[in-house]
Structure formats: structure tokens, C-alpha cells
Amino acid sequence: MLLALSTWPEIEAFLQRSKTVIVPIGSNEQHGPTGLLGTDWLCPEIIAHEASKRSDEVLVAPTFNVGMAQHHLAFPGTIFLRPSTFMAAIGDWTRSLGAHGFEKIYFLNGHGGNVATIEAAFSEIYAEYSFRKERCPFAMKLKNWWDLDGVNALAMRQFPVGHGSHATPSEIAVTQWGYPDSIKTAEYEPRIAPTGPIREALDFRARYADGRMGSDPALATPEKGGELVKQAVVSLIKDLAAFAGEARV
Amino acid sequence: MLLALSTWPEIEAFLQRSKTVIVPIGSNEQHGPTGLLGTDWLCPEIIAHEASKRSDEVLVAPTFNVGMAQHHLAFPGTIFLRPSTFMAAIGDWTRSLGAHGFEKIYFLNGHGGNVATIEAAFSEIYAEYSFRKERCPFAMKLKNWWDLDGVNALAMRQFPVGHGSHATPSEIAVTQWGYPDSIKTAEYEPRIAPTGPIREALDFRARYADGRMGSDPALATPEKGGELVKQAVVSLIKDLAAFAGEARV
Amino acid sequence: MLLALSTWPEIEAFLQRSKTVIVPIGSNEQHGPTGLLGTDWLCPEIIAHEASKRSDEVLVAPTFNVGMAQHHLAFPGTIFLRPSTFMAAIGDWTRSLGAHGFEKIYFLNGHGGNVATIEAAFSEIYAEYSFRKERCPFAMKLKNWWDLDGVNALAMRQFPVGHGSHATPSEIAVTQWGYPDSIKTAEYEPRIAPTGPIREALDFRARYADGRMGSDPALATPEKGGELVKQAVVSLIKDLAAFAGEARV
Amino acid sequence: MLLALSTWPEIEAFLQRSKTVIVPIGSNEQHGPTGLLGTDWLCPEIIAHEASKRSDEVLVAPTFNVGMAQHHLAFPGTIFLRPSTFMAAIGDWTRSLGAHGFEKIYFLNGHGGNVATIEAAFSEIYAEYSFRKERCPFAMKLKNWWDLDGVNALAMRQFPVGHGSHATPSEIAVTQWGYPDSIKTAEYEPRIAPTGPIREALDFRARYADGRMGSDPALATPEKGGELVKQAVVSLIKDLAAFAGEARV
Amino acid sequence: MLLALSTWPEIEAFLQRSKTVIVPIGSNEQHGPTGLLGTDWLCPEIIAHEASKRSDEVLVAPTFNVGMAQHHLAFPGTIFLRPSTFMAAIGDWTRSLGAHGFEKIYFLNGHGGNVATIEAAFSEIYAEYSFRKERCPFAMKLKNWWDLDGVNALAMRQFPVGHGSHATPSEIAVTQWGYPDSIKTAEYEPRIAPTGPIREALDFRARYADGRMGSDPALATPEKGGELVKQAVVSLIKDLAAFAGEARV
Amino acid sequence: MLLALSTWPEIEAFLQRSKTVIVPIGSNEQHGPTGLLGTDWLCPEIIAHEASKRSDEVLVAPTFNVGMAQHHLAFPGTIFLRPSTFMAAIGDWTRSLGAHGFEKIYFLNGHGGNVATIEAAFSEIYAEYSFRKERCPFAMKLKNWWDLDGVNALAMRQFPVGHGSHATPSEIAVTQWGYPDSIKTAEYEPRIAPTGPIREALDFRARYADGRMGSDPALATPEKGGELVKQAVVSLIKDLAAFAGEARV
User: Fold this and answer.
1) I need a labelling partner for E200 at 20 to 30 A (CA). Which of A109, A200, C106, E78 fits?
2) β-strand B139-144 against C20-25: which pairing, if any?
3) Three-state SS string across D64-93, please?
4) Which of D72, D34, D228 is nearest to D144 (CA)?
5) Interface C:A, ≥3 CB–CB pairs < 8 Å
6) Is F38:F24 a contact under the CB 8 Å cutoff?
7) Which 57-96 residues of chain F touch chain D by CB within 8 A?
8) Residues D153-173: tens digit of each pLDDT
9) Phi, psi values for residue F210, rounded to 5°
10) Which of C177, C95, C168 is nearest to C137 (CA)?
11) What integer pLDDT is reported at residue F234 of this predicted model?
12) Cα separation of E24 and E178, whole Å?
């Protein structure tokens, strides 16, 4: 069930049987010569939407499609929120969902660079309750889609060499499966991109000339993407159920 | 051309021939018994994406899908950013696009409640340059899709009675055209909803029992939606070209 | 009754019979070769103070004399608050008045450039209550003095040509009536100023060489100002009474 | 010369001969049974406006009429900015004046409770330059009107007993001189109000039942107010000249 | 009793018999050719820790070791918080201590440049309660160590000439007593440093070539430091007891 | 070399030969029945100070002694900064150090709960440069002391069972070695504490009755602490040298 394609009475009815909602969250940022700028928000959206087709218990909020990607700004098309802005926005999304009675808010994340800020945002929200000595009426959970049970292991089997950490063949494969009309090709030089630290945008572009980090996106295929989605969907439904079932202490 | 389905080299190439980009911007909020929660971000997205199919000069950024809708929070499914958060986020989106060399940033808006905050956000961004006594390298423009040339006039012809101002038959028609599988029906009582002021969420729900303001959404049809989209697309392409062509003083 | 010239026991007594207060709000910004820098806060102050002389029910707070005028900064004398600051300040004024039991807070505005930020500020305040699922104990209303019943129509009759949108003969006439010792004259070239968009300060000065937009301030006279004030005062008292009488839903 | 009653060309001309401007700054807060709510902003306004009549070198900006008065909120009519808001607003006023080329910005203050926040605001502004390793193009100075040369000594002679620290006879006398039609009377019980610490608003009202601190406002007369204004004006003009004449190191 | 070297059950037990806590607060900033960068936080820490050895009623929180020192940034080693950051941090420290039930929070300050911002921070915290019409459950007090009873008088006796206001012999003496292994020497030229206003960092360094203001640190000795500490400790314990004993109104 | 016990000329001289500085950073929070409230800032301080004794190249800034610990607030003595405050403060510390010419700023962290916010703070700082299209003149690095080469492995050997994640025997051992006079004992029930998620403070206290998570602090001894410190110091000096030696791309 997609929240944006539902009416408020439908959400009201859903809340009678479940208090859990998924927010796909990612980033709109360069992904090398062939990766889509939307890769990091398209992947969790693809997986969450697929999950919602498999289970009536899966309610998916609109996708939070821009995240923390300051280091990618020297590559055209990147759009990002600075951490303070990102935290404020996550806070308002969460307070809104919490106000409706959602008790379990599950962020399915598609961008490693988001993790620190999302966790900081959770702490910022909890801190309001801690200062007031009140129980927070909802719990938040962050899960990267590649950390869903079995997904990373599958990716390692699919791409034992050249997976890397940015513009990875696994994430590109997922978008190829989801958007087969938008598959791009390029010559990669070197085949496997370099690795190193992440600092500000000009430093990043100086280190990673075409935007990849440690990856060989040429390995991606829509079929592999389909396998990853399939595994992710199964694990997501399970993980979500466990979170939903968690009792309050 | 959709930015999220493009690569950074494609955007780099686009910037060689155009410095203009559209950002569909809306809200995720209740739209009465039958309107989709996503109505206000789906409408500008539908129109902008259609325009991008018609013209290679139309580049569409990801949709900014949550806006200022505090007054709708008492209806389940509404997600909003408070104005200060919304302004910060618009600022970061715009600074990101400006950093790539976009000189004309065109927000196609789908939510009346966004207008004040978006304009305040523009002023906040311009003020940075004003205080520094610098020219702002980009211009921003806000256009509501219903204010595109001919659109509102068409809606008035289509819905001479019962158009109203929230959960209007015109916006619902556009989403029916775009998402024909998500058309909902309900009995409306009264047929045409009441009107009045907008204050905080509980006041809003007390005044507008089913979430509509002055509207009769039963009048919406996908066909009328298609007519509205057609008109909007033509006018959007023209308006965008005029904005793109505006010379710097 | 002027709040600043009252004592707290007088305000305490006033609150026994009325819960309504006016805040004149404007801007301190250039108004062309002959308009006073204070024009936009002087106009609503003049009108509100006149109204307070006519009716014991009209309580006027101190004037909020600096607003959102970033675009005028390239002209000496302009002082402005960026929107985020302006919103914070409006918030604190309003919370203060609300804390005393005022239930209807009426902002009589003198600057078009303030409108978006004031409305965003209202939403920011209401949003606190919406998130907390509480009723806001007060309602806010924004009214531009030229939108008071009959005022704009009168101005159009007085100045059928050359009214324009900034440094208008109507606002200058009001200050001429209020401050007859501060009437200035100049040669205007061109007679009617150009119009166009509003961006950052240097852009504004490049477009509007002497600071006017579309106006011919030479048409202003203190007599016409007096007529405008007279009309505005009558309508203000009526509008305020309607607002004060509005029942809570 | 009053900035608000001047045009931008007049300020442009003034800047040719002087780079100094006064900002009267105060608070709108309860001042006991008979003190005007505006006392703390009226006093510096009265003194600065008088000074501007005596000297063409004295340019007076609009009055910053609301300040830091959280502790007075339990008395009706008080309006205040929390320190963070107040600092932001002082910052924007100052940046605006600095942008025009004012090099000496002189805040004539009328409220002891403002001092800490105004000084913190100055540091916040200077810190921007310190972090950027730039010289600040303007200097700020805070002066309480009672600290102007000879003023406090005169007040001590006028009111050797019962001057106190809030709703003092000296400040009330100044407003009596400035606003003779708004002189109020009351029985004070006790004659001289108690003293003590300042905390939040309810604590304040519990300690200071009628809002005075250590003062006997019955001692105030318009004549004494006139003497104070006279002394303050002379000293202000001198102090301002010294500040204006201070060379940059 | 040092909070950082205690366990939570020990603090829980302490709160059974006392609701008072000291927070040493200072700054890490240049102190002339021989003064330690930590001088301003070491002094209150030394005094507070000594006091805690003398009395079981003295509980000392960790030292807040960075404050408002923007003007010293042009001298290497200075670390500062801008006022807005400093206020936010003081707020969170205080809210944390208040949440545990501390009712008297005593800031023993070592830096004159902190005073304004700390007081503004107190007002910011109290303002939350004032707006909510609630009593603040705790009271805050700021005391500079040199303002403790008898301390400044002793310093004036010890250093009748050349005490000055920054890098004073008294504060340097205290650190010499506390850190005898870190005593530094230098030739001072001139012997007594100049005085003047405080603005941004480059202005400060231009005025005060070696970082001192009005002082002759060569006068400092560890023995004099010991005398100052002794006096300060006695007075601190007394002042703290008076604050602790203050009844709520 | 300890920055706080140095003078500015000493730091100026240090900067001639090194551009690297360590900031010990931790938290002041409950650490179970026997762990010191200061554990998380004492550990990195102990290690960094030891390292500074071993090598003239190790310059240690004052300790940032309060961090993100909202979840511990229900245990007395905890003091924390909410993430937004913490980020602002880290930003000001870092900008200060960067202003002096430090090019490598190394945060030695003692609290797992700080990691997300510190990384977000780094991104916030870098983002300023990314938006301005400038190189950041300094690089920041975060290292948890237990992640220093060989440290965690040693802890696993020392405490193969009952190490846990909060109030661990390894961190308590380090403070026992550093503060042998402050060793506390208690009966632990159960011997090994439970584990689980981290949410707001009341939830935390409900889950973890005595404040420990998964740990058996009874295993700690000062000797084991000494071994950990020894290993950490060697690795810190090496890690710091590698960071210092990293060339700019």
C-alpha cells in the first residue's frame, strides 16, 4: 500500500490494524559515468514498493529523495541537504507520522552517506522526550537495503571483485532492473575505481575522477538487480514484521 | 529529461545548452475522502514529466514531495515540514542546483499552502547575496500549475460550480488521469464542502469534517484531467522558455 | 488605546472586555526619490492610531517597523530582517500577546514584501500546536491596509494611471498626510517607473534606478492621503470587529 | 535627522559627511502600576530624537522597540524577543546598516535586561569576521541612556531614595516629559518596592507584586524628566562625536 | 565531590541531601606571552575542586572549558563558541542537570567575555518557562571567581598597579599555583599593556600586540595565586550555601 | 604538549613544525553502578595525554567533555548536548583550530553514541566549502580509542566474556588505571547486563535497570587498564603520524 496513492480514510483504516510504516530514504547524487543520479533513492523505493505489492501489511510513505551528499556536489546533478537541514526535515516527517499514531517508523535507506545524519536525527527527536521525561510514542529504525538479511552476501557472490562502495554494481543493477529503459554504458578507466577518504566536494572530485569509489559498474545487469530485489523484499517483509511485533518495555 | 534517471555526464552536457531546470514541488496531505494523499506533488510531477517528453529542453529534477501542510495534520497520512524546515530545505536544493551552473530554477508548485513559504525561502536565499553585495548567479521562479496560461480558465469551464480550494475536482482529475488505477469514490455530504479560514490542525478538522474546502470532487474525471494536463504542458513549455530566455540586467 | 502608552493594569482591564489587538507591521526601506524610508511602517501606524482614537475597542501594539526588504538593500537607509529572523520575531511577539490572553491578533501590514514571510510565520506558530495536537488559543490575521474595504478602489480612482507597486502615490500620500513637515519633491525620470521581477538587491537597483516600481509619486497629495486614511480607518474598525466576533469552532 | 522620515538620496548624502548612526533600542514591558509599557523604548527614542534636533550630525534609525523581557511576561502588555531571536534581529539591523557604509553603529539602550543579549549579539556579528579572518567594516557600541555622562548622577540627586532598578522615577519622569498626556497615578503599596533576583516570569510576579523593583515612581515629575533629557542629550552628542571620531587601528 | 569521578548512584544519593551543583565555566584563549591558553577555565576549576575537598556539600560538574572568545582568535590556540552556539550548549547542560532534580545551578565563571552570553543563555532558558506560564524548576546563578567575596579586594592589594583586564597577574597567579610545572616567563614590552575596546579578532591583535590588556603578568607568583585560591574557596562555599538555602517564592 | 597548558607563542611555534592536533572527545554520562560519569571523556583524555608525554609531535587540545547521551538522561549525573547543539559546538571548535592553520584535526573519541553526530558535524563543516566551491583547508578524522590498532583485540583477549557495549570492563579499567583513587565496587545483578536497542531515556532505563549494556564491569582492573592505555598510546602516535603525513590531493 502506497501512502501517496491512498486517501486519508484508507490510512485511518490501516492504522486500525498496523502502526508501522516504511519511509524509503536516499540521495540524489552522481553515481559515476553510468549510474543514475537517483540511484540511492530509487533502490529503496523499488524494494519497498515491491514489498508493498507482496504484503498488505507494508505501507510505504513517499520517498525522501534527497539526503546528505555534500561530497558529490562537484559532479553535476547532485542535490543535497546539509546535515542540520536533513535532521530538521527527518524530524518533521517523523513527528507528522507519529502524530497519526504510527508507532514504528522504518527508514529503508539507500545511501551510506545518510547513515550518520539519520541516526543523529533520531537522537535529536528522542532527546525532546528525554528532556521532558516522557516516553516517545514511536520507535524509529534505520536499515540500509544492502544490510537486509542475505542481500550483501548475495552481492558479494554476484560481484566478488569490483563491488566497491560508491556506484556499486549492486545498486546499479537494482536500478537497471527497475528502470530498464534508462540503462547507460561507458568505458571505465580504470576498470576498478580507486578508494580513499571522503572530504569536501572538490577534494572528492580530485580523488575520484569519474565519481566511482572502488567499483566496477560494468558488472551490473538487470537480472542481477532482480535477484537482489527479490532477496531484499523477502527480508524486508520479515524485518518489518519483527520491528512491528516488538513490544514496548 | 529526468534528472534522476540521468547520469552526471548527461547533466554536464545538458548544461552546455541550457541553464534551466524544473523542480516539481508539492505536499503530501489529505485531500478529502477520495483525493490521494500525494495529489499536490503528483500533479506538478505528472505535468512536468509530460513536458519533458515533449521537449528536450525540459529537465525535471526529482519531486520535492513534502511541503507546508500543518493544517492538515489531524487527517491521517499528512506529512509536512514546518516553514523554517521547508525554507532550509528549499535553500539547500537551490544552492545545489546553483552550484552546477543552473541559472534559472523553476519551481512548479502543486500546493497553495506552499506559496508563502517558498517565496520566503527565495527571499532568504537572495538575502545572502544582498548582504554580501553580490549578484545572485541564479534566478528562482515559483509557478502554481493551475496558474499556467489557460489552465485555471479551463478548470472554471470544466467545473463552474464546486471547484473550491482544497481537494478540488481539477487536481483530483489530474491524478485520475495520471494514476487511473487509484481512482477512489465516496459519498460526499454535503455535496459541496464549506469554506473558511485556515488555522492549526484541530481547528481545520473541526471546520472541514472530511477535509475538503469548497469543493465537489465527484466532478472529477480522468478525461478532464487529461485536458488539464495537455493545457498545462503546452503553457509550461512556453513559460519555461520565456524564463530561460530572460536576460540578466 | 495605544499599548505602549498604557500601563499593565490598563491592559489587564482591557482584556476583561476585549481579546483583540492590532499590530501595525511594515518595513523600513527606500521608497524612491521622495518616499520616506519609513513609509511602509508609518502607513499602518497612522491608520491604526487614527482608528484607536475613534474607538475604545481598538488597542494598538507598538509598530513592528522592520520587515522583509532584502531587495531594497542597495539603496541607503534600508534595514531588513531576513525571513528566518522575521519569522522568529513575529513568533515571539505573537506568543507574548497570546500569553496575556489575546485571542485575536491582527497584523495591519504596510509592505507587500512582508506578506509571504508573515504568512509563513503564522504557519510556523500554528504548526507547534498541530504537532502537539492542541488547539491554538489565538487566531492571527494579516491584512494589508490597502486591502481594507474600499481603500484600493479609492486609490485606483485617485491614481488611475501611475499607481504602480512600490513607492506608490497612495502610500506616499498617506505619509504626507501624517507627516506634512516631511514632504519631499524631486524630478522623476521617467515619470512612471518601470516594472519587472524582484530578485536580490543589486539586481533590483539595476532594474529600478531610483527605487520606484511602476509608480508616479508626484501624484501624491496630503489631501488624497487624508481620504485614504479616512476610508481605511472606517474599514479597519469594521474588519477588526468582525474578526473579534468570530466564534471558535 | 530621522532616518525613517528621510529618503534614500538624503541618507546617501548624509553618508558623504558621516558614517555614524544611532539606533534607539529598548523593550516593551510592564513598568509598574503607573509606568508606560513603552517606557524603555520611549526613553532612548525621546533622547535621541531631541539630540537629532540639536545637531545635524545625529542620524537616528527607527526605534528597536521590543527587547529581552521574558521575566515581565506575567504582566499584561509585555512583548519580548527571546535572546536568540533578539540576537538574530540585531544582527540583521546591523548588517543592513553596515551594508550602506555606516562604520559606527551606536545603540542607545533603554532597558537593563537588554544589555547581555545586545553584547552577545555584537560578539556574534564580530565572530563572523573573526572566523573569516577579515576586518569588520563597522564598530558597534552599546550605551544605556542613564550611563551617559552626568545622567545617573543627576538621577541620584533627584531621587536619593527610592530610585530602584525597575519602574524607576527617572525613566518614568522622562516619559512624563515626553508624553505629558499619558501621566498615570496610583497608590503604591509599599511605597518603595522590594528588590531581589530575576528569574522566569511567574517567579518575578510572585516577588514583585505590582511589577516595580526597588523604586518609588511617585517621585517622578515631568520637570525632572526634562532635566534628565537635557543632560542626556548634551552627553549623547558628545559621546557620539567621540565614537565617530575614533580612528581605525 | 567531583561529578565526573562519581557514579550515578552516588549522584542519586547526593541529590537526597542537596540540590545544588557548581559548573566551572571559562574559555580557552590566549593569555599573553606567558599566560596559559587554559587560564580562564583552569581558574574556576582549581577553585571549585579545592572547595569540593573542603566540603561534602560541594558537587562540581565537569568544566565547561570553551567559551566566547571571538576577539582572541587571531592568537594561536584560541578555541571559542560563537554566542548562539554557547547559549545552546549552556542550555543543554542546564536542562540535563535540571532533569536530575538539581534546583540551584551555579556557574563559577573565569572569563569576563563569557558574562553577557551566559546571562543571555539563562534568559533563553527561563523564557521557555515564561512562554509556557510555568515555574522553572531550577534557578541559575553566574558568579565570576574574582567577584567572590574578598577576592578582587585581595587582588587589588596584591597588584595595585598593572592588574589590567586580560592576562591579569591574579589569574596567572592562580594557574601558577595550580600548575607550578607550567610557569612561563617572558620579557614584556611595554611593561603594562595598553587598554581599549574589544571588537573582532584582527582589530584586537592590532591593538594588543602580545595579547595582554592593561596588565603586567610579571607580577604573578604562585604564592599570590595560593592566597587568591584560599580566599576564593572560603567565599565560594559561603556563597554556594546562601544560594542553596534560598527559598522558592 | 597540552594546548591548555601552553601559551600562544608556544602554539605559534608548534605550528611551524606540525599542523596536527588531537581533540579528546567524549561524554559525561552514567556508566552503571561503578563506572565513573566521566568515563567516556576521561578515557580519550588519559590516552591522549599519555601520548603527548611520549612524543613532542602530539599536541592535545582541551577535552570536549560532553557529547550525545540523551538516552542516559534518566540516570543522575548525565549531561548531554542534543545533536544539533553538539554539531554547532564541534563546528566552532574546528573552525577555531582551522583558523590557526591546523590542517589535520583528529578527534579521539570515547563514546559510541557520539559517532553519528561527530560525522554529521564533519559533513556540515565540509558542506560549507562544497557549497562555496572551495577546498577545505583542513581535514578532520574521527577515531574511537578502542578502534586504535590492537586495542579492541586486546580487550577481547582480556574480557572474552562480558565485555558488552556500555560500561564495559575495558573502559572502566582505563579509568581505574588513570584514577586509582576513584575505583568503585558493587554487586552486579545480573552479572552480565542485558542488551537491546537504544531509544529515549525512559525506555533506556526501563530496559537497562542499572545502566549497563551487555557488560560485566567487575572484570576491570587497573592493570588491564594500563595495558590498554599502553597499546592505545603506541597506536595513536602511529595513526596520528599517518594522518599528519597524508598529502593533499
Assistant:
1) A200
2) unpaired
3) ECCCCCHHHCCCCCCECCCHHHHHHHHHHH
4) D228
5) yes
6) no
7) 95-96
8) 999 999 999 999 999 999 999
9) -110, 5
10) C95
11) 98
12) 15
Give whole-number Cα distances, D14 to A220, D240, E248, F123, F133, in Å.
69, 16, 54, 46, 39
Place of cell 574480557: F159
Taking an 8 Å cut-off on Cβ atoms, the answer to whether B79 and A97 are in contact is yes
DSSP states along B84-153: HHHHHHHHHHHHHHHHTT--EEEEEE--GGGHHHHHHHHHHHHHHHHHHT---S-EEEEEEGGGSTTHHH
Q: Residue C36's closest CA among C217, C224, C196?
A: C217
Residues of F in contact with A206 (CB under 8 A): 249
Q: Measure CB to CB from residue F4 to each of E36, E85, E211 and give the nearest one.
A: E36
Cβ atoms of residues F47 and E17 within 8 Å? no
SS3 of F142-209:
EEEHHHCCCHHHHHHHHCCCCCCCECCHHHHHHHHHHCHHHCCCCCCCCCCCCCCCCCCHHHHHHHCC
Average pLDDT of the residues in D69-84: 98
Task: Please indicate whether, in this complex, the C-beta atoms of B130 and C74 are within 8 angstroms of each other.
Answer: yes
* Band (D103; pLDDT cuts 50, 70, 90): very high
SS3 content of chain D, % helix, strand, coil (to 5): 50, 10, 40
For residue D244, the one-letter residue type is A
pLDDT band at E127 (very low <50, low <70, confident <90, very high): very high
D129 touches chain B (CB under 8 A): no
Q: Which residues of A touch B189 (CB under 8 A)?
A: none
pLDDT bin (cut points 50, 70, 90) of residue A205 is: very high
Domain parsing of chain F, residue ranges: 3-244
User: Mean pLDDT, to the nearest integer, of D55-70?
Assistant: 97
The pLDDT of residue C140: 98
- What average pLDDT does this structure show over D41-53? 98
Q: What is the pLDDT of residues A38-97, one digit of tens each?
A: 999 999 999 999 999 999 999 999 999 999 999 999 999 999 999 999 999 999 999 999
Q: Check residue B126 and give its pLDDT.
A: 98
Angstroms from E39 CA to nearest CA on chain A: 33
Using CA atoms, how far apart are residues F93 and C141, in angstroms rounded to an integer? 44
* Mean local confidence (pLDDT), C131-155: 98
User: A22-54, pLDDT tens digit by residue?
Assistant: 999 999 999 999 999 999 999 999 999 999 999
Whether residue D99 lies within 8 A of chain B, CB to CB, comes out as yes
Per-residue pLDDT tens for C75-111?
Answer: 999 999 999 999 999 999 999 999 999 999 999 999 9
d(CA B57, CA B41): 22
**Kind of pairing between the strands at B104-109 and F20-25:** unpaired
Instruction: Extract long-range pairs of F117-120: CB within 8 Å, 24+ residues apart.
Output: F117/A116, F117/A120, F117/A123, F117/F67, F117/F68, F117/F83, F117/F86, F117/F87, F117/F90, F118/F25, F118/F86, F118/F90, F118/F142, F119/A116, F120/A68, F120/A83, F120/A87, F120/A116, F120/A117, F120/A120, F120/F83, F120/F87
Q: Does the domain at residues E3-244 carry the CATH identifier 3.40.50.10310?
A: yes
The complex scores an ipTM of 0.98
End-to-end CA separation in angstroms for chain B: 29
C-alpha F12/C-alpha F15 separation (Å) is 5
Inter-chain residue contact B133 with D99, CB threshold 8 Å: yes
- Average pLDDT over every residue of C174-183: 98
> Among candidates A33, A248, A17, which has minimal Cα distance to A139?
A248
With bands split at pLDDT 50, 70 and 90, how would you rate the model's confidence at F135?
A: very high
Q: Could you say which residues of chain B have pLDDT below 70?
A: none
The amino acid at residue F139 is: A
C24 — phi, psi (to 5°)?
-65, 135
Q: What is the pLDDT of residue D30?
A: 98
